[in-house]
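re: that chain from earlier
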Amino acid sequence: MIVKKLIIALLLIILLTFPTFGIQYHNVNATLENIPFMVENINLGNINILKHDDSIYIPINILPEKLNYKISIKDFIKVSYPKTYLDFNEASPLNGEEFAYGEIISIDKKNNTFRLEQHLDDSSPIIDYTIGTSEDCILVLKRNNRGMNIGFDDLKVGDCVGVVLTKEKLARGIILNK
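^ sequence. v structure.
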């Protein structure tokens, strides 16, 4: 019994004093700097970097964001391609804009107008009129994480689209999902 207590006490002493003998601490001299980030003479804003000796350390999420890439970290890092198409902002209800989603039931390609059969939910505005398009209307075809710009001529009856409507009830942006 006494031998067991002595062995346990000896093991505790060894375990508690071990880190003081085995680990050496080094003083690291590094500086944190805020520098301008430029790619091909285009200023993308400032980033914080860590300088140590002759090395520069940049957080892994900074570069993809600055270069318009998206990353997601799960079991590994996944990088997607940058947007190669012109996109538009979400609807702004504070500015009188609305978002509607539905199936195109008629199109007048000469006048760039169409009608929707809406897929309604609790917050959908009721659209029962012909929708015109603004001069700077952006049309985007999206599939998974990819997208491309299309023209009004690419729309057809039966397409399901999301439409951002201005307060003048003109389409500012149309998303076609395939």
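The radius of gyration is 30 Å.
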